[in-house]
Amino acid sequence: MQNSIKLLNKYISVNLRSQLQYRLTFVFEVFGTILLTLTEFAALALVLLKFENIGGWTVGEVAFLYGTINASFGIMDMFFSGFDPRNFGRHVRMGTFDQLLLRPINITLQVLGLEFQFRRIGRIMIGVGILIYSVQTTSILWTGEKAIVLFFAIIGQIAYFGGLFIFGATITFWTIESIEVVNILTYGGSDLIAYPMNIYPELLRKFFTFILPAIFLNYYPALFILGRPDPFNFPPYAHWLSPFAGMLILFFSLRFWRFGITKYQSTGT
Amino acid sequence: MRLFIEIAMRAFRLQMSYRAAAIAGLLTNFFFGILRAVVLIALYDGREEMLGLSLQAAITYTAITQAVIGYLSAFSWYDVANTVYSGEIGSDLLKPINFYSYWMARDFGRAMAALLTRGLPIMVAYEIFIDISFPNFLLNWGLLILTVLLSWVVSFSWRFIVNLPSFWIPNAFGIGRFFFMAALFFSGFLMPLRFFPDWVVKLAYLTPFPHTVNTVVEIYLGVLSPVEIWLAFAWQVGWIVALILVGQWILKLGLRRLVILGG
Looking at residue A269, what is its pLDDT? Predict the structure, then answer.
């Protein structure tokens, strides 16, 4: 365990040093990441000037959903980039994954250490920025309990999307190419929960409640913190469920990952 | 011209051969399209019409934007920059065709294949599942085809320019990303331009970007008067001429200092 932590530290510092080699490129990329999320949010916020609300939520309230998910997706994306199906698929295709398997170190740890994308700091910063904007415009009455709910919500989101990255990476054992359809669950899922869940058709909402429990990650914590009523009459502790939903997905993804490794056949390149 | 068609045909066939990728891309584009349609439906909140667009037109708008993602390479396109970094450009420059026309031909073939395998199926899927509107007269179909073609030329000519910094710097993707982002916003891809405040629309029209997606959307939906339609075409052609000239000029400067390492 102690060894693993030491190794992880090494991985992180190697990644950081190599990414800071091209200082200007790094700054450009951080800035680019900030702008991307900002333009997407700005498009919605500007349109809300004329449309006033979406699903009964004001721009400040939607900003709460938007900011939270972008901050936690940014954190997740930074630490799980090794599993990002797009990057990981390349290792399977080129056969570099075989090299990792030969080393006498836990394989999950090694894949985690393959890449830490520090430019994602931009997405975290803009997420926090949008969250602060929301807190200022909605005049939330903060309590200790609400702060903990928010913290748990973020933990749940990181685990959930990290789990989906691992799931997507495992699939590439069979498909070799990374498949774009996984994007529906990862990027699509994070886009989906950036809006109030009551705007979705019932079928879609039920899917993201009972099959993939994404509704608990962002929507329920936000309802609680913003003091909005629950239109679906869930039990009053629903806003605490985010970490459980996240861990559930992470747990099953890791199981699937280990199963995938036992079935892994090299491409031979 | 024959060479142009030959190269375009090859690029077309190459793109057509990625069948699994096309199906996966189709599903993804469709899912995100539905998501965006749901957001617009929620924004309309029971209203029949907002700012000159009916609800059905707004849903159709999401279909069109999703349909042109592949066709216009809306998210990223660094094909030229990649050949500069790999050195492949060396052999491309030896080809008996002007370098600019060569890339135009390649991108034309790629774009046409994307339109067939990703654009049209999206529209069909939308029509089956959600019911969208179509241009109602033969003339409108003709205008639509013309503007769709012109929008590709506008798109190609700015995408080519943002690939050119690769002649000067070791990583041109950061700069490129800025332009692709600006394009998503100002082309009316994220939201229809007419939903934005006036000052944003004015700002957008200082750039070439609205003359790609937004013009196609407005001509498709038939919200422009005949005069406005001709004006839209004039703007497209004007930007095409300007961007192609600028692109070729920067290319000339870049080629003068290009060094290809053997290997």
Answer: 62
User: Would you place residue B261 in the very low, low, confident or very high pLDDT band (cuts 50, 70, 90)?
Assistant: low
Residue A25 forms contact with B (CB below 8 Å): yes
Query: Residue B180 corresponds to which tokens in the numbers above?
Result: 């692709």
Give the C-alpha separation, B243 to A124, whole Å.
36
| Residue B16 near residue B70, CB atoms below 8 Å | no
Which of B32, B48, B61 best tests the A interface by mutation, with the highest count of A CBs <10 A? B32
pLDDT in tens, A164-180: 999 999 998 888 766 77
- The mean predicted confidence, pLDDT, of chain B is 93
pLDDT at B120 over 90: yes
Q: What is the pLDDT of residue B130?
A: 87
Q: DSSP letters of B125-166?
A: HHHHHT------SHHHHHHHHHHHHHHHHHHHHHHHHHHGGG
Give residue limits of the domains in chain B.
2-256
Q: Which residues of B touch A (CB under 8 A)?
A: 20-21, 24-25, 27-28, 31-32, 35, 38-39, 41-45, 50-51, 170-171, 174-175, 177-178, 181-182, 184-185, 190-191, 195-197, 200
Q: Which residues contact A170 (CB under 8 A, 6 or more apart)?
A: A253, A256, A257, A259, A260
Runs of H (alpha helix) within A139-233: 144-175, 182-185, 187-192, 202-206, 219-226
Beta bridge partners of B49: B54
The candidate with the shortest Cα–Cα distance to A41, out of A113, A118, A132, is A132
Q: What is the pTM of this model?
A: 0.91
Smallest CA–CA distance, residue B178 to chain A, in Å, is 6
Band of residue A96 on the pLDDT scale cut at 50, 70, 90: confident
Tens digits of per-residue pLDDT, A182-238?
A: 889 999 999 999 999 999 999 999 999 999 999 999 999 999 999 999 999 999 999
Instruction: Spell out which residues of chain B touch residue A200, defining contact as CB-CB under 8 Å.
Output: 38
Distances (CA, A) of B210 to A7, A128, B11, B152, B220: 50, 31, 27, 12, 14
Nearest CA in chain B to A175: B20
